[in-house]
Design goal:
The protein contains eleven helices and ten strands. The chain has 261 residues and is an alpha+beta fold. The chain has a five-stranded antiparallel β-sheet with strand order 1-8-3-6-9, sandwiched between helices.
Length: 261
Amino acid sequence: MSPIRQNDIHEVELAGRPVVGFAEDYPSGLKAEMHVHPRGQLLYAVSGVMRIATEAARYIVPPTAALHLPADTLHSIQMDGDVRMRALFLRKSAAERVGDTAAVIAVTPLLRELILAACAEPLDWALDGRGHHIAALALDEIENSTELPLSLSQPVDPRLKRVTDALCTMPTDSRSLEDWAENSGATSRTLARLFRAETGMSFRQWRRQLRLTEGFTALVSGMSSSEAATVAGFESAPAFGAAFLEVFGLTPGKAREKFSC
């Protein structure tokens, strides 16, 4: 992150309140390399898409969603488009209420306004004042939120990571596992075994999940089903719709209607 804001982040991490807000705008392409925070976070962006990676998974966070990260989770953040981040930092007592696993959640209109209101409050908001009520209601909304399927298992083996990193950069890449083997330092059979062992999916399943996740993000960011199908690398909108329904249990149109801005 920008070094100008490190002191501000440090102040947020030391704040005495259970929930405090942090607001900052970041340019497209900026990446914060792997780092940790001693408090839990709810990472939300009013605009722009955040691509967040932990040691276990990758997450895509469009403006209608937020990522809950437990304290001390090693993670990186890549800004896709200009990002207006509005985050909540949670002390242990507050973080325990919303769980101990990372998850992308849908941000309701109410939660969005609560996040913005928390960011407008001072770090030492009055314990019996407006900040207290904002924090309490925000935690209730997070607890009762809907989890979104915007994560993907992250492999550990460096040979497999070369493949998955490249695919995440270009999800529409249609090369076969045999083609990828030429540049990964492993045979196609080894890569196939590693995909199963480290992600629980075959190569085709993992790539399809990646593409559908990209398509889901496109939909909730306001694109049409046909536009999302193109982003996701499907040959047609009907093919995209059938795969989307099979994996997510609802049509692209319903997902766009339910979760978009």
